[in-house]
Amino acid sequence: MNNVLRFIVSFVLVGFAAALSSYFAYLGIDTFYPTLTLPPLTPPNAVFRFVWPILYVLMIISYYMVLKNANHQSASLLFVGQLFLNVLWSFLFFAHGWFLYGLICIVILIWTVFAMIREFHEINDKAAYLQYPYLLWILFATYMTAGVVYLNGFELKVM
Question: What is the pLDDT of residue 30?
Fold first, then answer.
């Protein structure tokens, strides 16, 4: 696979996941999300619009670097798996207000990202290091998700 094709694959995978996650977030962000009791340290919504594009760019670059290695199959599986879980979290939390299922999903996502970073380290240390901001953000998102579960219950209550 040449460099252009590697970049296209990386960009399309991350872009597709980003678009789906954004769509699901949009379903809840202007409807029920403002009515939730949020945990302390929850940033304003504008912060999310700043952080996620940076994380997605880092993911694209990181995965592009991993694709340069012929033995990227295991790392690729984990990368695609974490993208799926990221989208699933948005679907559960924002599209349906199933906060407890979102919490379970994000805990599995953390494990998957840890495993992915470990695999990336075996291929390219720089690619792995580019994933650490994402891991930190997911850990923070887990705190916020757990806070929503604790403060609002397991799922959205329709009035």
Answer: 85
Is there a domain that residue 29 lies in?
Answer: yes
Q: Is the pTM of this model over 0.70?
A: yes
Residues 6+ apart with CB under 8 A from 3: 68
- Of 28-37, 58-67, 140-149, which range is least confident? 28-37
Residues 6+ apart with CB under 8 A from 90: 20, 21, 22, 24, 25
Distance of alpha carbon 29 from alpha carbon 121, whole angstroms: 35
Is 159 a domain residue? no
Q: What is the DSSP string of 122-134?
A: HH-HHHHHTTHHH
**Overall domain count for the chain:** 1
Average pLDDT estimate for 58-68: 97
Q: Is residue 25 one of the residues assigned to a domain?
A: yes
The domain containing residue 58 runs over which residues?
3-152
The residues near 110 (Cβ < 8 Å, ≥ 6 apart) are: 135, 138, 139, 142
Question: Burial letters for 74-83: b for 16+ Cβ neighbours within 10 Å, e otherwise?
Answer: ebbebbebbb
